[in-house]
Specification:
This protein is of the alpha/beta class. The protein has 39 helices and 15 strands. The chain starts with 6 loop residues before the first strand and ends in a 10-residue tail after the last helix.
């Protein structure tokens, strides 16, 4: 169709909201209504110089030469639809959206252009009777709006194409509705889907098939398979975005590409849901947290840890509302899996090329053109270069990553010259291992070809940067890539980003990170080993992250340091694995020890236990006793948190002799204080008191060494436990003094949340003494810290504390409900109340049961168990507020 607009085209998309239900209600009336609706829209489109070029069901797509014409047509069409009498069917609620961009019609009277994809995503966010405009249309039309029309800025919204947020505007007019619900955009739905640097092209059929499959009730696990570089991840992300409205509890992305250890998969999944490893098997805890939710979990690059598929399958069996979308080079081979093999992009036959205007109907060519225009905006397929473009895509087997790597060089080489280089470097089915599939051989050669276009200096940067798992900062790159001190690392990184061998991710506080795609990184590691630099580069890598981990020692829980280690978690794991595999016992022992506080505060308890155990299996070095002393102490700390008090006591006791060999009075004091805490957990109060108050090795009070070191956190830890012991001995005054001192010291430390236990015991002491207003004050502070911490096991203890207060106030129903919810949470976490607080909880609960009677008590238990965590916390706040108001009544939250 030669009269279709070309160049900068404004597109109008419309569809009828809730049309499926209307068709089911009255098909005959709906058919007549749709015909009338099309007639009204056609009249408006034609009146303003537009053309309806496609109709899909009841959805209209029209093109206009200018933005003001498109806006005027949308306004007229919406006004006419609103004025129409639709009879018993009720009003048709039509949503509309406009976007503009470069586009050329094909001979079939259709468009294949990136703006159409973005416009369809925008339309999906709107509501019936609403007209939405992108910022491009707003800029083109704002000075020529129809009479009485205005624009409302709705702000930035992330659309389902996962690109940068789109500024969205709503067209206002006195005859149009004004107020609508929030747009149905990514930022209004729970998810962690990453932004993508380029638009998603093609694959509409494949995306639709996977979306439909995951919407079926009997389908729980779908695996998208295919070779590296075929686009599995990008397709999975698009499917996840399209399913946001299907899963009310969100879609959640887990990148497994940097994991080599299948046992870490549960930890990687748990991190997405902020589930900590606290005293129970992690898969059980995850299942407990996710049960009752409807969500989609997207696990990317599963082939690296395929052994963990069984754990994911078991989780699916236990969490009825969860579904999993996996990407993998191989199927997972678990029960119920639906495999979706992803083929390369459709290709033209270079020997029988279609007409020039039809060439971009092939997704591979569309991708090449789009990526080429990103680096050379005036690039276009011409009769002269069309055969070369088609041949390039054919030689690269339609693999998206390979095409992207090739297309960026259009800025320096025309397609004909590119093809010649491909013919020399990428002969089809050669260059890779003979046992690999042909597409993987071609992919490997595509990366090799890009690598060969680098200068010798850039190649050094490329192979050395490949050592980083999960990317790196400029500081890390400088330390590992530039030991000679003569290289311009920033220039090298810039060159690699320009050639798409390295990608930039936004970091914290604008500190950028640089990451290789895993396929590219695998090739880089091959080149690193072939260069003979592998061992030395990995050693520098491990030493850099050892230094990073040791920077905060002996601080505990510095948030800045914890965030830094979290960002480098994959690199730290790689450094640990390298030191284990190469027998670098010193690095393994020191690095595992230095990471203890990270594992402790961020909840990676099982992982920390495992690494520390491996480190302690190495032969002792009598010449360097301190690293082993701390590793033993650290292992004891994590074991105690995990609930393995006997193992904790063994590790800590063993550490004493190593601390003495190192002549480190402070370290020994920390270990003795930790062992004292273990003994308190076991109810061995006299033995614990002896550890806190004496130190036979140095003939002085154990706290003296802690005080001299000036470490408030550890001294507060000791004072807290001594306060608990004093309470068990009936000395309330001394207990309160010690616990208040602990709170003040924790508040001065870098981790004031550690004051939670001291606050709760101050509340319990006050509660037991009848000072209920004071108890409420301490419990209120405790609850504030608990909300920040987010640990479900800790929240359970906090609820039990407030329940004890409610029982003391003789507010029996809330007391029983809160106790019941606390017990339910602890059962889910495979944890128990510790001594001595457990005895006080049991006594308070017994009083409540006696006061209510068995029937009322059991009813309150059932009601409490049914509470959500947030409702339970809200009921706890009501109890605390009651005390603040001097016993004023308040309706408990149910």
């Amino acid at each position: 169709m030669t009269d279709l607009p070309r160049g900068t085209v404004t597109f109008l998309f419309t569809d009828i909201e809730g049309s499926t239900a209307l068709w089911e209600r009255d098909r005959q009336a709906m058919a007549a209504a749709v015909d009338r609706h099309l007639a009204l829209l056609d009249a408006a489109i034609q009146a303003h110089g537009g053309i309806r070029f496609k109709t899909i069901g009841d959805a209209v797509q029209a093109a206009f030469p200018t933005a003001p014409q498109g806006v005027a047509a949308a306004l007229q069409g919406q006004r006419d639809l609103l004025a129409e009498d639709w009879g018993e069917l009720g009003p048709l609620r039509v949503r509309m959206a406009l976007h503009a961009g470069e586009a050329t019609p094909n001979e079939r009277g259709d468009y294949l252009a990136a703006p159409l994809n973005r416009l369809s995503r925008l339309l999906a966010t709107g509501h019936g009777r609403q007209i939405l405009l992108t910022q491009v249309v707003q800029q083109l039309a704002r000075s020529a709006l129809p009479p009485r029309a205005e624009l409302r800025d709705l702000g930035d919204h992330r659309l389902r194409d996962l690109l940068e947020p789109e500024r969205v505007y709503q067209l206002l007019h006195p005859e149009l509705p004004v107020e609508f619900p929030p747009l149905i955009a990514l930022n209004n739905r729970p998810h962690n889907l990453p932004l993508q640097p380029t638009p998603f092209l093609g694959r509409e059929r494949e995306v639709g098939a996977v979306v439909d499959m995951l919407r079926r009730s009997e389908v729980r696990l779908v695996t998208v398979t295919g070779p590296g570089g075929v686009g599995k991840t990008r397709l999975a992300l698009q499917v996840a975005a399209d399913l946001l409205n299907t899963f009310p509890d969100g879609v959640w992305f887990v990148d497994l590409s940097v994991l080599n250890d299948a046992t870490l998969v549960p930890s990687a999944i748990a991190a997405v849901f902020s589930v900590r490893e606290e005293g129970s098997e992690l898969t059980d805890r995850l299942a407990g947290v996710l049960e009752g939710k409807r969500l989609l979990l997207v696990t990317d690059n599963f082939e690296r840890v395929v052994i963990a598929a069984k754990a994911v399958s078991e989780m699916l069996a236990r969490v009825s509302g969860m579904k999993v979308l996996a990407t993998s080079r191989t199927p997972l081979h678990v029960y119920g899996e639906r495999e979706v093999p992803l083929a390369p992009l459709p290709l033209p036959d270079p020997a029988r090329l279609p007409p020039l205007e039809q060439l971009n109907q092939y997704d591979a060519v569309r991708l090449f053109i789009e990526r080429a225009q990103a680096v050379k905006p005036d690039f276009a397929v011409t009769p002269a270069n069309a055969p070369a473009v088609a041949e390039i895509c054919y030689r690269l087997d339609g693999l998206p990553l390979a095409i992207e790597l090739a297309a960026v060089y259009v800025k320096v080489l025309p397609p004909q010259a590119l093809l010649k280089r491909l013919e020399k470097r990428l002969p089809l089915l050669t260059g890779g291992a003979r046992t690999l599939p042909a597409r993987q051989q071609t992919m490997r050669d595509a990366v090799a070809w890009s690598h060969d276009l680098l200068s010798a200096e850039e190649q050094i940067h490329f192979r050395r940067l490949a050592v980083f798992a999960g990317g790196c900062t400029l500081e890390a790159a400088e330390a590992v890539v530039n030991p000679e001190g003569t290289r311009d690392v920033f220039a090298g990184i810039t060159a690699l980003v320009d050639t798409s061998l390295l990608r930039q991710d936004d970091g914290v506080d604008s500190d950028p990170r640089f990451r290789m795609l895993e396929t590219v990184r695998e090739f880089g590691l091959e080149r690193l080993e072939a260069s003979g630099e592998g061992a030395e580069t990995r050693r520098r890598h491990a030493r850099f992250f050892l230094d990073l981990a040791e920077r905060a020692y002996p601080e505990t829980g510095d948030p800045t340091w914890l965030d830094a280690i979290e960002g480098e978690h994959d690199n730290v794991r790689a450094a640990l694995a390298w030191s284990r595999d190469t027998g670098d016992h010193d690095t393994l022992l020191r690095l595992a020890g230095a990471l203890t506080y990270f594992w402790y505060y961020r909840g990676y308890l099982n992982e920390g236990q495992r690494w520390l155990s491996l480190a302690l299996e190495t032969a002792p070095d009598d010449a360097a006793p301190r690293p082993r002393a701390w590793a033993l102490t650290a292992s004891g700390l994590l074991a105690n948190v995990w609930g393995e008090t006997n193992r904790a006591a063994e590790r800590l006791t063993e550490s004493f002799s190593w601390w003495e060999r190192s002549s480190d009075a402070y370290g020994l004091a920390v270990a003795r204080s930790l062992l004292g805490g273990v003994y308190v957990s076991q109810g061995r109060y006299d033995a614990a008191e002896a550890l806190f108050t004496t130190n036979e090795s140095y003939f002085r009070d154990n706290e003296a060494a802690l005080r001299e070191a000036g470490h408030e956190n550890w001294l507060a830890h000791a004072r807290f436990h001594r306060g608990v012991i004093a309470w068990t001995q009936g000395d309330d005054a001394r207990a309160r003094s010690l616990l208040r001192d602990a709170v003040e010291r924790f508040d001065r430390s870098r981790v004031p949340a550690d004051a939670i236990d001291s606050l709760r015991y101050l509340g319990l002491i006050a509660c037991t003494a009848g000072d209920l207003d004071e108890a409420a004050m301490w419990f209120r502070k405790e609850l504030t810290h608990l909300r920040q911490l987010g640990s479900r096991a800790a929240l359970a203890v906090g609820l039990a504390d407030v329940a004890t207060l409610a029982a003391a106030r003789e507010v029996w129903q809330p007391a029983v409900r809160l106790f019941a919810k606390a017990e339910a949470l602890l059962t889910a976490e495979a944890a128990v109340f510790s001594l001595p607080s457990r005895e006080h909880y049991e006594a308070a609960r017994a009083r409540a049961r006696e006061a209510l009677g068995d029937a009322a008590y059991q009813a309150a238990v059932v009601a409490g168990q049914a509470l959500t965590v947030e409702h339970a916390l809200a009921e706890a706040e009501v109890v605390l507020e009651r005390d603040r108001n001097g016993g004023a009544g308040a309706t408990p939250v149910l």
